[in-house]
Structures are given as C-alpha cells and as structure tokens.
From TrEMBL:
Tree of life domain: Bacteria
Listed PANTHER family: 8-OXO-DGTP DIPHOSPHATASE-RELATED, GDP-MANNOSE MANNOSYL HYDROLASE
Any GO MF annotation of the entry: hydrolase activity
Keyword Hydrolase: yes
Swiss-Prot/TrEMBL cofactor(s): Mg(2+)
Domain Nudix hydrolase: 21-159
UniProt name for this protein: NTP pyrophosphohydrolase
Organism (species): Corynebacterium flavescens
Keywords carried by this UniProt record: Hydrolase
Length: 164
C-alpha cells in the first residue's frame, strides 16, 4: 500500500507519454573530482538498460533536493552528510495533463559534489544493474537515458560554474 503522500505513480510527460512520479521527480548529478556517479537502470524500470543519474519520484510537497538525496540513498547507499549540494535545475517539464494522467510534471536535477572531492562507496539496490563513477569526458559515449543525454551538456557546464 502506498503512503498518502507517496509520489509513486504515473504522470503525463512530453507528448503525453507516461513518466514516473505523480508530483514530479528529482535526481542527483553527483561529481567527485572529474567523475560523475551514474546508474545503469535495471531492465524492468522505466527506460531500463540506459545510464542516468540516481533519482526518482518526489513525494507530495517534498523539495527536489530532499527527494534527490533520499533516492540516492535508497539506490546507492550514499548518505546526504557526504554530499555538498551546489544548486538545482529543472531539466524537463512542466508538461500538460494527458490521457487521464496528471500534468505539471517536472524533473529537477540537483547538482552536487562529494564532501571531500573523492569517490564514495556505493551499494546498488534492485533498481540498478550497476553503479559507476564515470569520467565527465566519457559520459556521452554510454547509452544514456534520452532526457539525461539532452540535459548533460548543460548540467556539465552548470556544475563547472557552480563549483567555482
């Protein structure tokens, strides 16, 4: 049974396609040195067998930063205390309601770095087939989640600006 404020469920995304998160979604663009933490999504997940950042559905009235850190802990076993948040960017949406799905869905990417600038140990949950620290220059060579591929150049540039 889902909690009353749970964001688990579908909403309308681009062109009315189903996207996960009744109240939107958020993910963590976490950098250590010149590497970003990526998740190879399990086959059974939405857009499975693609690489992206850890993240997921936002709960009712949950701030994007809280959601991204919660999801990263659930999916990677990384503690919020080991992360320094630098900013957040809405990288998709909002989209209108469609086919009886709620609208106004957005995806917010939280930009952060590890507290000491070094890789953190990770433990994958069932939503991940693999977690990997990937050099920023190598990210676009992977089969990326479509929305992440589109947002990556901007996120990389924004991260570089924020860490100055």
């Amino acid at each position: 049974m889902k909690a009353q404020g749970s964001g688990d469920g579908w909403a309308a995304g681009p062109d009315g396609i189903k996207v996960w998160g009744k109240f939107g979604a958020a993910g963590l663009f976490l950098v250590a040195g010149d590497e970003v933490l990526l998740q190879f999504r399990a086959k059974w997940t939405n857009a499975g067998h693609t690489w992206g950042i850890p993240g997921g559905a936002r709960d009712f009235e949950e701030p994007a930063v809280a959601a991204a850190l919660r999801e990263t802990h659930e999916e990677c076993a990384i503690e919020a205390r080991d992360v320094t948040v630098l900013g957040e960017e809405v990288t998709a949406g909002p989209y209108p309601a469609a086919a009886q799905l709620p609208g106004q869905w957005t995806y917010t990417t939280v930009l952060a770095q590890t507290l000491h600038g070094e890789r953190l140990a990770t433990v994958a949950n069932a939503e991940s087939e693999e977690l990997r620290w990937v050099a920023l220059d190598e990210v676009e060579k992977l089969p990326l989640l479509g929305a992440f591929r589109k947002a990556f150049p901007y996120l990389r540039q924004r991260f570089a600006h924020l860490k100055q």
